[in-house]
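Journal club side-thread
Mid-discussion, someone asked how the predicted structure for our own chain would compare to the paper's figures. Pasting it here so we can look after the session.
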Amino acid sequence: MESFKYTVMNELFLSELKSVDKDLLQKLILLEEHIFSDSVLDTRETNDSLDSLEAIISQCVAMISEIESPLEKAEVLLNELYFQHLFIDRYQTRWPISAYQVGKGLNQRAMSPIIKAALVTEIITACGFETDLVFIPNKIMVRLCCDEQYAIIFDAVTGESLDWAELDIRLDELEGDPTEHDLQAIDDNVALVEHLSALKNILIHEQVFDKALTCVDVILSLTPDDPLQRRDRGFLLHQLDCFKVAVDDYRYFVEQCPKDPAAKILKIQLENIDISTNVLH
């Protein structure tokens, strides 16, 4: 008998996650509640941190209220946010799990890239600017529109902005016609998948397989039948002793990615399966 009960995802949760009426920060909080639902303390900390977020917004609004130039206003705002409110940071090889939670991340000033980007855009938007997220190889960055002619594109983690020369070099790395690289804002789902993929990896590293499985299930609801995510779900189900269910995901991955080195190994193992004893020979 399998010790871990694998259940189908809640449809109400998914419809809220895909809702156009919620912004990215609201969706990240919704995700957090879904993944870490066993912790009442985390929910309380998130609520407290949203109060502190309001305080940061109020102070930032006050700081720029007398400035007329949009560009100067934007520069003062970013300076206030990253230096006075200690948002400045550097990339880590592996972020702690707490960095993927809105409340803990904000309170400790250690936020994973997408959490940080969502919080920063929330603050800047509340200060009267148009903001969105754009993909600049190889990361998601924040675009702050000062006016119709000028925008600042910066890294949410470090606060460092790109100059035009650097932007051109990065955009040259994109495939396709360079004249069509007009920096469209990315969809919330792209940011959510990026966030969930990184969180899944750290949860696997920490061997928190049940929560990692929740992450990959949500990813597959946003990007159905992604073979690499199906492979990861198979691995997690296998770790949780749901081997019979895992086999379908393993087989799907092998069929879709036959040239992948991992698929070649799995194919041999699948040919030697004894499902009745849940053992890979």
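Post-session note: The CA atoms of residues 30 and 186 lie 20 Å apart.
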